[in-house]
Amino acid sequence: MTSPTKNKWVDYAVFGLSLFLLFCLLFESYIELPRLVAWVGRFHPLVLHFPIVLLLLCAFLGLTGKKVPKQLLTIAVLFSLLTAISGFFLGKETALKGDLLFWHQWMGGGLALLAAIWYGLDTVNFNRPIITKVLQVVLVGLIFATGHYGGMVTHGEDFLALPTEKRADEIPENPLVYNDVVGRILDNKCVSCHNPNKTKGGLLMTSLDALLAGGEVGNTILPGNPEESEMIRRVHLPMEDEEHMPPDGKQPLNEQEIQILERWIALGASDTLRLVHLQSSEPLKGLVEGLMQPDAKEKWAKLPKVADSTLQRLNSDYITIKRIAGDADALSINVYKSPVYTAEQVTGLKFIGQNIVQLDVSGLPIGKEEMNFIGSCTNLEWLEVDQTPITDIEMDALNLLSKLKTLKVHSTAISDESIPVLNKMDGLREIYLWNTQISADGLKALKAVKPTLRIEGGISEELRNSFVVSDSIL
Predict the structure, then answer these.
(1) From 370's CA, which of 108, 142, 197, 286 has a CA 20 to 30 Å away?
(2) pTM exceeding 0.70
(3) For the segment 384-401, what is each residue's pLDDT rounded down to a tens digit?
(4) Domain containing residue 279
(5) Which of 97, 244, 260 is nearest to 178 (CA)?
């Protein structure tokens, strides 16, 4: 083959890179890459967009009858070959390749080789316009097909699927905790990097067996032992830590999701555990039921905006404030007893009172001042005032908490006089009442008004048989 170009080295480079790429594709199973060479593959996502644009521009010029500048085609072809080769290097880091990665790799290689053929035909002044245009059309088709498969490898198979009005992963009424809840979290936050098409760290997270098998660093989860589970360790690392999962640039797990994973592992990481199997006092039950509440984000979107700087200022050794989900303005607050307790420890939260959705002041020596403040937090859904010195007088301050779903008021001095206050709580779904002065008649009256209310009464068997409370009283 004779070439009119004076830059013979470019021809040799295109020919050599083409042969090398073809060799890599055909003999992949026999190739072991040195670490430094494998590292070069990580530049693949950085360089791939450049040749795509150049090749599309070349194809557009060719298909519209314009002359394709030789220099433009040369640069496009060289970068296409380098991109395909770096993609091959990157793919070698994946121990198990799925169909998506397989086809993405072969279509990308075919695209680069087809571009090299175009370069070769142009170099020898091949004068068959029809064949050249067919080649250009095929080239454009391969660009879109390869990009489509690449997008699915990176973002998941349903990345370009049409949106639906109803989520396909909606949690059913009595979910299997692993399949319907844990799996949902992993699919949303982890599987894009740990699937058959992209097994980062040699780890698959698409099934329980794969999770138990672990990855290159060893265990992923240890049933019954979340503290020693590698997955839990990594989600708790600081965001700037390179071992934090998900990695920088991916949406991190929120506190609720982390707690669900921890409790599921602590309970044995079973794939047969259902919501109905959980005791009412088990934290995982409340966490899952919280996920099942419809339109939670829309409801919280109406809350006042609260800045991170405000939360940082109010947080202390005795006050822990967290956003319930992601960047939501709904807050969960735990207040602990300080050596010198004052009411200001609770009432000082008045600046964010309307943002408080969950509040735990159990065990504190609170009185009327704190309860009046709590009663003003009208968006409360979860309240723990158990083991405090409150009485019916202080309970009266809570009569405006219509959104309250869970109330822990056990081990207090409240009596039947607090029943009318509880009846006003339209959203109340469960209440913890043992070690209080509320009588069996008081419980009957409460159940008559709220037949679906789950009551944790801690009452004797004799009293249990004196009135019907169905399965809600344990």
Answers:
(1) 286
(2) no
(3) 999 999 999 999 999 889
(4) 177-292
(5) 260
